[in-house]
UniProtKB/TrEMBL annotation:
PANTHER family: IDURONATE 2-SULFATASE (PTHR45953:SF1). Residues 50-414 form the Sulfatase N-terminal domain. CDD domains: iduronate-2-sulfatase (cd16030). It is an enzyme of class 3 (hydrolase). It comes from Mucisphaera calidilacus. Its EC number is 3.1.6.1. Its cofactor is Ca(2+). SUPFAM superfamilies: Alkaline phosphatase-like. InterPro entries: Alkaline_phosphatase_core_sf, IDS, Sulfatase_N, TAT_signal. GO terms for molecular function: arylsulfatase activity; iduronate-2-sulfatase activity; metal ion binding. Keywords: Calcium, Hydrolase, Metal-binding, Signal. This is Arylsulfatase.
C-alpha cells in the first residue's frame, strides 16, 4: 500500500508549495527542492510551559550505535542519546504500526480498546478511542499549538480534529504516481517512469509491490521522508516565533519500513560483504503452531524480487539487511536536521524531546522477517527521552511500555491529567533514578494473545478462535537471549511456568511500579 505523500497545505497561515516526483519509498518517493539553510536565531525568552518534540520512526528496532550496535551509522541519534535517557527494555503494546500508535497516542492498551473485527488500526473507527482525549487533543486543550508531519498514526487523516494544525492533505502530491489530477513532474522524470514500469510489471505478476530495495542517487528530499524533514524544520521555525505559546510538534518517518529505499550515499556507508545474515534463522524449537503467524511474512513476500515461499538466498538476505541499515542511516540524518534546528532556534532548553520506533523488527532471526508476531524482537523497541531537567546521558533497564509515553509527557510538562484513565505510568521517577525498582512486567497483544515480558522471561499463552488453549511459549532470555528454544514443557521450568501464569492472569495493574 502506498504511503501518504506530501501536499502543500495551510501551515500556520502559510502555504508551502513543492514539486512532486520520483520513486518508491515504501511505496513511493518524490522530489522537493532542497530547503534553504536554516538561519540561526538567538535564544528567545524562556517559555512558561515546556514544548514537546516527538520523533517517531517506523519499524525501527533498537539497532543503533547508542544501543551498542557499533556497525550502524547513527551519529545524530547517538549524539541525542548522549543527552537523554535511553530505555534499554522498552516494549510496544502491539507489534504492528496502526494498533501500536493508536495505543500510544490514547494512553490506553489495545486489549482495553479491542474490537470484535480485529486490532484497532484507525483511531477514529474505535468507539472507545473516539470518546477520549488523545495526546494531541489533550495538549491542544491546554493551549498548545499542535502539528504533525509524516507517519504518526498509520493513516495521516486519523485524529485530525485533535491538532491545531492537522496533517497536510497529501493527495495532490500523489498525483504524479497515481494519476490524480494535480502537479506534473518537475524532475526525475526518467526515474519515475522506470518505477511506474516496475510497478506495472509487478502487478501483472500478481505482486502488490515492486522491488523491495532501492539505492537511487537522489537527494534526501526526493523521498517523502526528506519532505517530512523539510516541513518539520519549517514548522519549528514558525512555532519558535511565538515564545508565549508552547507547542507539540510530532514528526514521523516511514523508513526503515519496507521497501528499503534510501539515497545511494547511505547505502555506501556499509560494506555488504561484511554483513552477516542471522544465524538463528529457524523458528524457535518447540514453538506451538499457534505462535507461527502464517501471514506475518506477507509484508515481505509481496515484493516482486522476493520468492512466494521458502527461504531467502544468502545474497538476498544480505541485500535486505543492507537496505535496512541504509534506511536507518537515512532517517538518522533527518532526525539530525530537526534536532539541529531545535538547537539553533534556542528551543532545546525548553523542550521535551522523545524518539521512539513503533515496534520491533526481525531481519531473519527466528526464521522471521518484519514484525506481526509475539516474539521478543517484534516487541522490543527503541525509546529515548530528554527533558530540560534531565540532560545527562544515562540508561535504564527498567521494563517500560509505550503506554507510558502519554503520562510521561503530561507530568514532564506539568499539565493536568486527562479525563480518562491513562493505563501507563510516567517514566519521570525512573529517569530520576534509573536503577530503581520498576515494573515487574510489560505486556504486548497480538492476534488476541497477550504476551508478557518479565525481567528474565517471555511468557505467552495461546488460544484458538474458540478460546481453547493452543499452547504456551516460555523463553528464558537470560540464558537464551535469542529466544531460540521454547522451554514451556521442559520439566525444570514447570514451577516458573506456574508462577508466570499467575502473574499473567493478574495483568498489567499488578505489574505497576510502586512509587
Amino acid at each position: 500500500m502506498p504511503h501518504p505523500s506530501s501536499h502543500p497545505a495551510k501551515l500556520s497561515r502559510r502555504r508551502f508549495t513543492q514539486s512532486a516526483a520520483a520513486t518508491l519509498a515504501s511505496g513511493l518517493l518524490w522530489p522537493l527542492d532542497s530547503a534553504q539553510a536554516l538561519a540561526r536565531r538567538p535564544a528567545g525568552p524562556q517559555r512558561r510551559v515546556k514544548n514537546v518534540l516527538m520523533l517517531a520512526v517506523d519499524d525501527l528496532r533498537p539497532e543503533l550505535g547508542c544501543y551498542g550496535k557499533r556497525h550502524i551509522h547513527s551519529p545524530r541519534i547517538d549524539r541525542f542519546a548522549a543527552s537523554a535517557t535511553r530505555f534499554d527494555r522498552a516494549y510496544c503494546q502491539f507489534p504492528q504500526c496502526g494498533p501500536s500508535r493508536c495505543s500510544l497516542f490514547a494512553g490506553v492498551r489495545p486489549e482495553t480498546a479491542r474490537q470484535a473485527d480485529g486490532p484497532v488500526t484507525h483511531i477514529d473507527r474505535n468507539a472507545m478511542y473516539r470518546e477520549l482525549a488523545t495526546l494531541p487533543a489533550h495538549l491542544t486543550a491546554q493551549g498548545y499549538r499542535t502539528a504533525c508531519f509524516g507517519k504518526l498514526y498509520h493513516h495521516p487523516a486519523d485524529d485530525t480534529k485533535s491538532w491545531t494544525d492537522p496533517h497536510p492533505d497529501d493527495r495532490e502530491a500523489l498525483a504524479p504516481i497515481w494519476g490524480y489530477p494535480g502537479y506534473g513532474l518537475a524532475s526525475n522524470v526518467e526515474h519515475t517512469a522506470r518505477i511506474r514500469r516496475e510497478r506495472r510489471a509487478a502487478g501483472q505478476q500478481g505482486y502488490f509491490n515492486g522491488p523491495s530495495v532501492e539505492a537511487a542517487d537522489l537527494p534526501d528530499d526526493a523521498y517523502y521522508d526528506g519532505i517530512t524533514t523539510n516541513r518539520t524544520v519549517a514548522m519549528l521555525r514558525d512555532m519558535a516565533s511565538d515564545a508565549e505559546r508552547p507547542f507539540f510538534l510530532a514528526a514521523g518517518w516511514y523508513k526503515p519500513h519496507l521497501a528499503f529505499c534510501a539515497p545511494k550515499r547511505y547505502w555506501d556507508l556499509y560494506d555488504r560483504d561484511a554483513i552477516e545474515p542471522a544465524t538463528n534463522n529457524e523458528h524457535p524449537g518447540g514453538a506451538p503452531g499457534a505462535a507461527i503467524n502464517p501471514w506475518a511474512m506477507n509484508e515481505l513476500r509481496g515484493y516482486s524480487d522476493i520468492p512466494d515461499e521458502g527461504p531467502l538466498s544468502e545474497a538476498k538476505q544480505r541485500e535486505l539487511i543492507h537496505g535496512y541499515y541504509a534506511c536507518v542511516s537515512f532517517i538518522d540524518a533527518q532526525i539530525g536536521r530537526v534536532l539541529d534546528a531545535l538547537d539553533s532556534l534556542g528551543l532545546a532548553d525548553d523542550t521535551v524531546v522523545l524518539l521512539w520506533g513503533d515496534h520491533g523488527f526481525h531481519l531473519g532471526e527466528n526464521g522471521h522477517w518484519t514484525k506481526n508476531i509475539n516474539w521478543e524482537l517484534s516487541h522490543h523497541s527503541p525509546l529515548l527521552i530528554r527533558t530540560p531537567d534531565l540532560r545527562d546521558g544515562q540508561s535504564t533497564r527498567g521494563l517500560t511500555e509505550f503506554v507510558d509515553i502519554y503520562p510521561t509527557i503530561v507530568e514532564a510538562c506539568g499539565l493536568p491529567q486527562p479525563a480518562h484513565e491513562l493505563e501507563g505510568q510516567s517514566l519521570l521517577p525512573l529517569m530520576q533514578r534509573p536503577d530503581r525498582a520498576w515494573k515487574s512486567a510489560a505486556f504486548t497483544l497480538f492476534a488476541n494473545n497477550l504476551s508478557m515480558r518479565t525481567d528474565c522471561y517471555r511468557y505467552t499463552p495461546y488460544a484458538d478462535r474458540n478460546g481453547d488453549p493452543a499452547g504456551v511459549e516460555l523463553y528464558d532470555l537470560d540464558h537464551d537471549p535469542g529466544a531460540n528454544v521454547n522451554v514451556a514443557n521442559q520439566p525444570q521450568y514447570q514451577s516458573i511456568r506456574k508462577q508466570l501464569a499467575a502473574q499473567h492472569a493478574a495483568g498489567w495493574r499488578a505489574a505497576r511500579a510502586e512509587l
